[in-house]
Amino acid sequence: xxxxxxxxxxxxxxxxxxxxxxxxxxxxxxxxxxxxxxxxxxxxxxxxxxxxxxxxxxxxxxxxxxxxxxxxxxxxxxxxxxxxxxxxxxxxxxxxxxxxxxxxxxxxxxxxxxxxxxxxxxxxxxxxxxxxxxxxxxxxxxxxxxxxxxxxxxxxxxxxxxxxxxxxxxxxxxxxxxxxxxxxxxxxxxxxxxxxxxxxxxxxxxxxxxxxxxxxxxxxxxxxxxxxxxxxxxxxxxxxxxxxxxxxxxxxxxxxxxxxxxxxxxxxxxxxxxxxxxx
Length: 279
Known about the structure:
It is built from twelve helices and nine strands. It has helices spanning 45-59, 82-85, 96-100, 105-114, 130-137, 164-172, 174-181, 189-195, 207-219, 223-236, 241-255, 259-270; strands spanning 20-26, 29-35, 66-71, 119-123, 126-128, 140-144, 148-150, 187-188, 200-202. Helix 1 runs parallel beside helix 4 (105-114), helix 6 (164-172) packs across helix 7 and helix 10 packs antiparallel against helix 11.
């Protein structure tokens, strides 16, 4: 059953601080934490820019093997901070959204979706609008069973952005996408797992332990092959079967030239667990 919460998140209340994104390098793991708990981690323009910079840097960092995205405090992310964005009182120039958003919210979603590193997202509390789509764009999202995924665009009088109309139908089907986007239904973490929106829903106290186990598993994997497989999955969503298999061949050619491929064969021959290095 979908969860409905009486108190809607209000990213416009509380402190006027811009917030920040904490970037922590933990060995081969990059931890990105949204830090604006007084506004349910709603993304200010500086926070969005910080996410873009961190993900862009990670894309070319050969030492990284997995990315973790989460929020500080009780909530994951209440979406883009439209109050801060429109607080100047000046009428924006014609075409302002078309010029600006592709290099802001849309760029974050694109980077999460296409980066050739596995991305794990942890969700507690609210995941709203852009925040919901961040969780959907990650490769694996672990959420508390009582977390709330919500796409309130139409309730605010405007149409969806940040990949909502692309991500939702592919993950949950068109009918459920319409329920979330046209009717504004809130979906609990438990239902999000049932719908195929996320990887796993667990009790709130287990979110951290389950996430860390998954991060460790991915960090120990064949990083290049994981990235190529992720790319192949996304390519296949738009390709015919012959086209997808051709792309698989190119990816196979690359992955077979890695040190991890040699280690995988040696481990299989020697009947031992592989020790992948991500190279």
